[in-house]
Amino acid sequence: MNSFNAIDPAKSLASVSIRIFQGFSILFFCLSIYLGYLSYLDFFPDWQIVHELSDGEINWTGNSTFWQTLFFAIPALISVIAFFLLAYLGKVIRKE
Predict the structure, then answer these.
(1) CA-CA distance, 12 to 70, in Å (whole number)?
(2) DSSP state of 42
(3) Contact 8/96 with Cβ under 8 angstroms?
(4) Count of domains in the chain?
(5) What range does the domain containing 17 cover?
């Protein structure tokens, strides 16, 4: 009956912060996938991938739709990794 039950405010704040950042990563994932889909449907026809060097420019030949879709797929993959990393970190914090 006389046991001391302390609630650690830093632990609660960290848990809430992790949930908020997980929500942001989900929103970023959805936005990246949606923009990747739009680029797959060729809604960004004016984008040209040009790499400028000191002695000139290199225009990438091939399908620019592929490169545009890849441009949006990489952030989506990073946000999925961030989501699961934050989930693991939240699990570790709750366990302590």
Answers:
(1) 38
(2) T
(3) no
(4) 1
(5) 9-95
